[in-house]
Amino acid sequence: MSATLLKNVASRRTIYALKNELPAGVTLKEVQETVQAIIKDTPTAFNSQVNRAVILTGATHKKVWDQVVKSIDAEDGKKRPASVRDEAYGSIIFFTDDKVTEKLQGDFPAWAAAFPQFADHSSGAAQITSWTALETLGLGGHLQHYNGYVKAALPDKIPASWNVAAQLCFGAPVEKPGAKEYIDNPVQIFD
What we know:
- Helix 2 runs antiparallel to helix 6.
- The relative contact order is 0.22.
- The chain has a single domain, classed as NADH Oxidase (3-Layer(aba) Sandwich).
- The chain is built from 7 helices and 5 strands, in the order αβαβααβααβαβ.
- It is an alpha+beta fold.
- Strands 1, 2, 3, 4 and 5 form a 5-stranded antiparallel sheet that branches.
């Protein structure tokens, strides 16, 4: 089992060249169920269950990313969000719920300063696990952080207390990623 997990972790790569479709045999429902299971089971500090996510596809996906493009002044800065708008099938928007974090800060004042960081750690775990899981379904993806721009463009139904943490843009991969180079970074044991 661990060999399969490690293979999946190594296979998860940044893929920018995407097609606005899902791979054959993959459904949006399957993507939703995968992300839902990960949001549910990703560990959180004090079992706070602070993670939230929505999936944008179709017209909503295009509208949000078009607003992001229009909000950026520099032409070079528009390239990545424009490619997301035009090439990705969808985006998973990851959030942490500030109401949950604020309640924890009130309930456990000794830990108050640490709770935002704990929420970020848990969100990161949900993001990378979701990305890895989508790769096992045959999807390509890349993680983006246009957080403020995306939050301003999201539908009004998203609670104001949900703080945008990242966007996992996904679709059918157009090509495989190139070779990855690794630094010498051994994990040492101190006994």
